[in-house]
């Protein structure tokens, strides 16, 4: 596909389908889309002939990048339908674009919340992050000097929260606020990194609200601390043992701090530097740009709260480059989770997702590492268990699923207790073990 900035293309928008205006005419991007209740999808009204497209509320439906992506990905309709014909046990199939749109099969109507908003962004989902990037260790540095008071600090906190959204169970992180001194957001976790699981991320979010701005920003102290943490943690053999990054959120830097980078990060540049300039002023933008570019990272400026989500996403494109350039089509399986949309007469359905990155075949992919997105499908855990019936295991064999925290989710001798363990499913990682 050749990008066309003037491309006009009417697609099925999952929010607008079948919607009419006051005169009874279908809305733009909201053409008639036949939906029929289907037993296989828990009687949800779906269209098993076509997929449709969800675009996050904070993005323009007809942005040229969205329209072009939706246009070329339309050919996935035949792939989805053929897959479903070949394997009727399949449920949701989808493509999450690096541009933000989400193509889902079978097509289904999406309903916004009471505020008219759909916050879902496929690029924040664990299946997307795990497939698009390698595991990573991240230190987030937040400027809390006096110049960050008011809206700037609010934007900075939201930026940190959005970065946390992009971290998964394979990642490790810590957050350090700095002025004349260093302030670990969680004082009990000085000098180390923690797993980016749901509980830890929520815990750190609560502590973000306690930050306030005062004093002078001493970035050199913060950079030294960040590099030391990453180095020490890596040497212990803990963490992701893969990519490492420093995320700097500030309203400016008076120096490039090249001596610090020369000491810790050059010439190998193993730690990437991502810089987020908060506010409309660009007086210190050049220093932050230099730091990012000199350390294989990315610079972006965030002026309003509405800018946060899209600007944070840029770092994922950078971290995906090595995988794209090397054409690593790694298949990932996510931890188990509950899918409430497909609950059956036995209760909520335990699910896992299989996902894989999608690359362009154009020459620029090899040189620039352009990720198109991630393709995935959901797999009910009960379908996995069907593949290992007890009679095949023998009288002395059994199979069970266990969470990454060591809790048994399903086991032949523990079936009555399974429902009591649903609280752990959000952190679950499925491992099928044969003995």
Automatic annotation (TrEMBL):
One of the record's GO cellular component terms: voltage-gated calcium channel complex
Segments forming a coiled coil: none
Residue ranges of every copy of the VWFA domain listed in the record: 137-319
Main localization, broad class: membrane
MF (Gene Ontology): voltage-gated calcium channel activity
Alphabetic keyword roster: Calcium, Calcium channel, Calcium transport, Glycoprotein, Ion channel, Ion transport, Membrane, Signal, Transmembrane, Transmembrane helix, Transport, Voltage-gated channel
Source superkingdom: Eukaryota
Compartmental location: Membrane
Membrane topology term: Single-pass type I membrane protein
Similarity annotation: Belongs to the calcium channel subunit alpha-2/delta family.
Name of the protein described by the UniProt record: VWFA domain-containing protein
Source organism (scientific name): Chrysemys picta bellii
């Amino acid at each position: 596909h050749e990008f066309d900035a003037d491309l006009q293309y009417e697609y099925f928008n999952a929010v607008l389908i079948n919607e009419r205006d006051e005169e009874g005419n279908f809305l733009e991007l909201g053409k008639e889309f036949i939906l029929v209740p289907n037993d296989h999808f828990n009687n949800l009204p779906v269209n098993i002939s076509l997929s449709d497209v969800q675009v996050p509320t904070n993005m323009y439906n007809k942005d040229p990048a969205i329209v072009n992506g939706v246009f070329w990905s339309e050919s996935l309709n035949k792939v989805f339908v053929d897959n479903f014909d070949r394997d009727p046990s399949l449920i949701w199939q989808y493509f999450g674009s690096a541009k933000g749109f989400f193509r889902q099969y079978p097509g289904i109507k999406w309903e916004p919340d009471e505020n008219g908003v759909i916050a879902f962004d496929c690029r924040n989902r664990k299946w997307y992050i795990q497939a698009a990037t390698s595991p990573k260790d991240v230190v987030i540095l937040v400027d809390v000097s006096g110049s960050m008071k008011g809206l700037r600090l609010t934007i900075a906190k939201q930026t940190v929260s959005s970065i946390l959204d992009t971290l998964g169970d394979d990642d490790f992180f810590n957050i350090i606020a700095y002025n004349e001194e260093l302030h670990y957001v969680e004082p009990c976790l000085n000098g180390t990194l923690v797993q980016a699981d749901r509980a830890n991320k929520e815990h750190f979010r609560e502590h973000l609200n306690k930050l306030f701005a005062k004093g002078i920003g001493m970035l050199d102290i913060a950079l030294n601390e960040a590099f030391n943490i990453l180095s020490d943690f890596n040497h212990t053999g803990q963490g992701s043992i893969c990519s490492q990054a420093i995320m700097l959120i500030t309203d400016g830097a008076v120096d490039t701090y090249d001596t610090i980078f020369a000491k810790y990060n050059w010439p190998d540049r193993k730690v990437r530097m991502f810089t987020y300039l908060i506010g409309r002023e660009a007086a210190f933008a050049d220093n932050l740009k230099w730091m990012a570019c000199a350390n294989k990272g990315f610079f972006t400026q965030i002026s309003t709260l509405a800018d946060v989500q899209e600007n944070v996403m840029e770092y994922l494109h950078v971290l995906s480059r090595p995988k794209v350039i090397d054409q690593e089509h790694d298949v990932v399986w996510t931890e188990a989770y509950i899918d409430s949309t497909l609950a059956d007469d036995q209760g909520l359905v335990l699910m896992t997702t299989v996902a894989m990155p999608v690359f362009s075949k154009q020459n620029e992919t090899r040189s620039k590492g352009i990720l198109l997105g991630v393709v995935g499908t959901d797999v009910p855990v009960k379908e996995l268990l069907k593949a290992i019936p007890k009679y095949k295991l023998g009288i002395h064999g059994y199979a069970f699923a266990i969470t990454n925290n060591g809790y048994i989710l399903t086991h032949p001798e523990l079936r009555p207790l399974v429902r009591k363990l649903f609280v752990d499913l959000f952190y679950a990682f499925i491992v099928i073990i044969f003995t």
